[in-house]
Amino acid sequence: MNTPEWTKPGLYGAAIGAVALAIVGFSWGGWATGGTAQKMASDHARMEVVAALVPICIEQSKNDPQNVETLAKLKEASSYQRRDMLMKAGWATMPGSDDPNRNVAGACMDALAAQF
Questions:
Q1: What is the distance between the alpha carbons of residues 88 and 104, in angstroms, rounded to a whole number?
Q2: Which residues, other chains included, contact 67 with Cβ-Cβ below 8 Å and sequence gap of 6+?
C-alpha cells in the first residue's frame, strides 16, 4: 500500500495540535478534570448550605435572653476568639443538631460584625 507524502507530517501536525489544544484548554480555557470539578461543586454546595444557615444563627442570637451581654463580649474579644464564643453561646448549633457548626459560626460572626 502506498501512502501519500503528506501522511507523516499530517499525523505529526495533528498530534502537536492535540497537545497544544489540551494545554491551552486546561490552562486558559477553563477546562477541568472530573476530580477538580467534583471538588469545586462540593465546595460550592458547602458554601451555599452555610449561607442558608446563617439567618437561623442570627435569629437564634436575637432570641437569646443574654443577647446584649454576649454581643458586648464578642465586640471586646479578639477576632480569633469570636467564633468559639459564638459556638459556646449556642447560636451556631442548628435545630436538630447537638454540636455547633464551625463554618456557620464563622459566617454568622461576619454577618453579626456587619451589624455592630
A1: 13
A2: 61
